[in-house]
Structure formats: structure tokens, C-alpha cells
Amino acid sequence: QVQLVESGGGLVQAGGSLRLSCLQSGGAFSYYSMAWFRQAPGEDREFVAALNWQDASTHYADSVKGRFTISRDNAKNTVYLQMNGLKPEDTADYYCAATAWSNNNNIRDARMYTYWGQGTQVTVSS
Q: Which pLDDT does position 112 carry in this prediction?
């Protein structure tokens, strides 16, 4: 059974940086596409970034492109989200997700993802 555990959230001032980590246990990590989603209070969950296991392509929401970077370390079964230039509107709970699919056409679709972490909170103060 695949389990995902996020860490690295916290409180940061606008313009600051955080790095989120997501450790996967169970399953063959290198054969899972990994993604980050976020959900702000009162809002729907939204796509942030994804990394396709098959072609190593990365995908970003327009709102974070150029500021956030998704990466993975297969030896550590971990996916990261480096967040720079944080803004108050980035405040949300951030969730890690995993899927065995590798279709770039719908890699941003939360319905593709089978496994989810419990979330880690990110708060950006102005």
C-alpha cells in the first residue's frame, strides 16, 4: 500500500522560500508520476505542479510558474516542491499525490491520482 507523508510547511513572510517534501512508502516510487495540489480555506483544491515519471517532464500552474520547482530523488523515494518568491495568495494546505499513469494530457487532473498525503500547511504573511 502506497503512503505519502508531506513535511516542510510553515509560516513565512512574503518573498520568502520554503521547500516541501513528500516521502513515499510502498510501491515502486520511480514508476509513479508525482504532483502537488493545494487548497486554500473556502476554495477548491487546485493543481500546482507535477512530474511525469516516464518522460521526466514537469508541469506547472500559471500562478506558480517561474517561482516553484518540482523535483524528485528516486533513491530517497521523495518528491520536493521548492517554493520561492512566496506570496500571501500561496497560503494553503499543500497535498502530495501519486499516480501510476503517465499521460501528460491530464496530468493536472486530480482525478488521475490514486494516492494522497495528509497535507502540510503553508502560510505566507504580507
A: 95
Decide if 85 contacts 47 (C-beta within 8 A): no
The string of pLDDT tens digits covering residues 100-110 is 999 999 999 99
- Distance separating alpha carbons of residues 81 and 61, to the nearest angstrom: 13
> Which are the contacts of 38, defined by CB distance < 8 A and separation ≥ 6?
45, 46, 48, 90, 92, 93, 94, 95, 122
If you write DSSP's letter for every residue of 43-102 in order, what string do you get? Answer: S--EEEEEE-TTT--EEE-TTTTTTEEEEEEGGGTEEEEEE-S--GGG-EEEEEEEES--
**Could you read off the pLDDT of 10-49 as tens digits, one per residue?**
999 999 999 999 999 998 999 999 999 999 999 999 999 9
CB 70 within 8 A of CB 53: no
